[in-house]
Amino acid sequence: MLSVNRFEPQPQDRLFNSEAFFRLHAPECAFYFQWMLKGRVAMCLHVSEVATAQVRSPRRGTFGAVSFFEDVALPELEAFLLEVTRFLQQQGIRRLELLLPPAAHADERVAEQHFVLRSLGFSETLCDVNYAISVDERPLSQRLNYANRKRLNKCVRDGFSAGPMDASSLAEVYELIQRNRQSKGYPMTMTLPQLSEMQTLFPAQVLLYGCHAGDTLAAAALCLQVSPAVLYVFYWGDDAQFSGYSPVTLLADAIYSDCQHKGVALLDIGTASEEGQANQGLIRFKRGLGCEASLKFRLEKILEP
CA-CA distance, 302 to 305, in Å (whole number)? Predict the structure, then answer.
């Protein structure tokens, strides 16, 4: 049975599909769908209007689509998606876009969603390449390429230190990352007040890391615990005065070590493409950190009146 905007109690889910994240970013036209089986929520999906008669899952966040809370068979997934599309058609929605998690997020049953969506007439309108590190017992230094091992050793030799930062450091972290992104021509997709609100709503899931040269912040990262198994590097960057050290390498080592300590299975460092076009510099950088590639799809369906 389909439940719409009733927010039935459900297990804790990945950040981008949680009720709180949906409410934080939902415009006036937005729907939170849940699929009830035997009196419990088995799946959820939310969509928000991004243009006239066009909705997307999610409006904000890097991926959405369906979350599972039970061992759902494919016919149930198909039934859920059919009911969602029928409901949206009745609301006058004509275009539905779903951003799937990267394929490396295997626990989210990405392949099954992709298959069912294609069988229901959805088509791929975007394919990006995503990079992540599977966390195991090895230190990150064993996975770095030669150049990054040299950078890591140089930072350690010259007394740099890296690790988690307190939540009160958000403004300092944001300022450094903003300077770094502006120097490369990249915008900040969220403002400091927006991130501060997220930090208040999700104190255990908005995590800050820093690399220091003495008392000076040389590099910083803002990460999101998108699920118990996945930590996602949302933003990171370094101060230009430390470009000769590449302190992001030591920062990555600290984040990876924290994942090992917490039992996080995957450190997701994000895409290295924009609207399907490869950023070769980013690809080299992420591969040099020991990342492996997986595909990340956007699927779309035109809903007939």
Answer: 9
**Structural domain boundaries of the chain?**
2-127+296-302, 136-264
Lookup: tokens for 253: 């080592």
- Predicted model pTM: 0.94
Q: Which option is the CATH number for 2-127+296-302: 2.40.30.170, 3.30.2090.10, 2.40.110.20, 3.40.630.30?
A: 3.40.630.30
Q: What is the pLDDT of residues 209-219, one digit of tens each?
A: 999 999 999 99
Q: Does domain 136-264 have CATH number 3.40.630.30?
A: yes
Residue 292 contacts residue 104 (beta carbons within 8 Å): yes
Neighbours of 135 (CB within 10 A): 21
HSE value, Cβ hemisphere, 13 Å, CA-based, for 236: 28
57 vs 179, 184, 202, 291, 301, CA distance in Å?
Answer: 30, 29, 20, 26, 12
